[in-house]
Structure to design on (165 residues):
């Protein structure tokens, strides 16, 4: 198949035409879903949450986490699940290796979080995730019932179905 040259606005040559790729879907994955990537006992959405991880690793989507995530993941693993310090640290290393550096919350996102917390009677922590996703214009993926009921997040099942994963 030959590559056709495009004509610029004045009829001159510009860069060759390239096949267009669909834009990469970006998602903000909250802690309730991130935990399902590594822990399954007593969890829901277990079929779909790992599909998001696999799609991210395969380059089919770009997943992000907020800078709050390592603190909550570490807390759940060490306190609620009683993992050893070494296992918790290894898991946090894996999370960083998979997702890269977390997004750092900005003052504008905090302002929006305050408004969402008030409007939806959410804990400020949960509203911070929703505010970040809204400010970035990307979907928040969560298993948190309060965020889902408020219409501020999609479940792993909803997004995996929508993206045909």
């Amino acid at each position: 198949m030959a590559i056709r040259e495009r004509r610029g606005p004045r009829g001159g040559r510009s860069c060759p035409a390239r096949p267009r790729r669909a834009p990469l879907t970006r998602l903000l994955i909250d802690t309730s879903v991130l935990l399902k990537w590594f822990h399954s006992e007593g969890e829901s959405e277990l079929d779909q949450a790992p599909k998001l991880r696999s799609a991210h690793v395969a380059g089919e989507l770009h997943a992000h986490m907020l800078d709050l995530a390592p603190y909550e993941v570490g807390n759940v693993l060490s306190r609620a699940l009683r993992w050893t310090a070494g296992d918790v640290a290894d898991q946090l290393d894996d999370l960083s290796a998979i997702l890269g550096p977390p997004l750092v919350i900005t003052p504008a996102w905090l302002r929006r979080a305050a408004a969402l917390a008030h409007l939806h009677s959410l804990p400020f922590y949960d509203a911070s995730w929703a505010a970040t996703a809204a400010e970035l214009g990307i979907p928040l993926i969560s298993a948190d019932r309060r965020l889902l009921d408020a219409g501020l997040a999609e479940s792993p099942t909803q997004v995996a179905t929508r993206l045909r994963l």
The helical segments are 31-34, 49-57, 69-80, 85-99, 107-120, 124-136, 145-149, 156-162.
